[in-house]
Amino acid sequence: MNVNFEYAKTLAGEGSILLLLSIIPYAGWILGIIGVVLLLRGLKELSYYYQDDTIYQNSLTGVKFYIIALISAGVAITALLIGIGTATGFKYTKGFSPTPGFAAGLIAFLGGLLIAFIFYLLATSQLRTAFNTLAQKSGEDSFTTAGTLLRLGAILSIVLVGFILIFVAWIFATVGFFTMKSRQYQQYASQANENLPPPPSSENTMQTTGTATGKGGI
User: Fold this and answer.
1) Packing angle of the helix pair 100-138, 141-155 (nearest 10 deg)
2) What is the pTM of this model?
């Protein structure tokens, strides 16, 4: 199957940029959705190019897990708000009095957050695997760094530093997409390195130095 490598990596790179811009208030979520679509499309093309479908499949599974995590977080927040509403009679100027509804909402909130966290870890694990495969195929170490930072960011997402690591991870991924080289370029570079003369050995260097010294003495 003929795949335009430049087109594929540009799609994935643009998707990564839009994911970085998803932190923008109000319009960020729209940019994030477009970014995910472009990223998956680009990774699918790259999986065709490298003839390794695991790149796309792992990425797709990771996105699915992300969606489940987001839904779980949304349900958790909704349950908490409803619980607070039952404790205040849905009149937030009124005093707070704990009710069974509030207790149920709090339990649902904690359970939803736990489920969201688990699926978030699963999502980053899948994306890390896809990035590691890309690193092996393309020779770009930026993808390995991106996968590692995504994983650490997910684990530390309970604190602010986790989200910073995730943001930096997507910067590395973006750099990787735009700097990755085609297989033809990699083969050319490899052949060029093979044709270079080997460096002189230390023994030859010592012999040459000794000869030069001997001539100087004469």
Assistant:
1) 170
2) 0.76
